[in-house]
Write a structure and sequence with these properties.
Number of strands: 8
Radius of gyration: 20 Å
Helix content: 25-40%
CATH superfamily of the largest domain: Winged helix-like DNA-binding domain superfamily/Winged helix DNA-binding domain
Number of domains: 2
CATH class of the largest domain: Mainly Alpha
CATH architecture of the largest domain: Orthogonal Bundle
Number of helices: 5
Strand content: 15-25%
Structural class: alpha/beta
Largest sheet: 3 strands, antiparallel
Order of helices and strands: HEHHEEEHEHEEE
Strand order of the largest sheet: 1-3-2
Length: about 160
């Protein structure tokens, strides 16, 4: 599959070229032209094909990597890493535990946004380190974050912030 058959960079567009690359790759994933694990051209190859600066393509690839759409494997190249629900808004919903109260909140949230978004539910069990790791691991991978902070103190009392 030649990705260059599916990507058009409009020289006269007001949309920055790096943004056109990002949008084109996401569009081709959501339309099925690009699939999980498909290899995409190197930064140099892409910039040569479209007569773009290397920095422009690198900026686009950096955005796609931050959003976890592509991954880079040293010495091998760039690959499509995520294809599911890429055209929808992605939301990370982070709670300390799944109590009946929190499940009611979560279910109401899901019902109110309807089919317009994909929501990933993560549970951190009141552990600050797990909470911070989940946030760091998923930084820039989601469009929105819903966070219900709740931690335990040294005396195992609940608090809405870390001591």
């Amino acid at each position: 599959m030649n990705i260059f058959n599916f990507i058009n960079i409009d020289e006269n567009s007001r949309v920055p070229k790096y943004r056109q690359i990002v949008d084109a790759i996401i569009h081709n994933i959501s339309s099925g032209n690009l699939k999980m694990d498909d290899k995409i051209p190197s930064i140099n190859r892409f910039s040569e094909e479209y007569l773009l600066s290397r920095d422009t393509v690198e900026k686009a690839y950096s955005i796609l990597r931050e959003r976890k759409v592509i991954i880079s494997i040293k010495g091998k190249g760039y690959y499509i890493a995520r294809t599911k629900l890429i055209s929808k808004v992605n939301i990370l919903f982070l709670v300390n535990k799944l109590s009946s109260y929190k499940m009611r909140i979560y279910n109401s949230f899901i019902e109110s946004i309807g089919g317009t978004a994909h929501t990933s539910l993560f549970i951190y069990h009141c552990e600050e380190e797990l909470f911070l790791n989940l946030l760091e691991k998923n930084r820039n991978a989601y469009d929105y974050y819903v966070i219900m902070p709740h931690f335990k103190t040294e005396k195992l009392k609940h608090a809405s912030h870390t001591p």
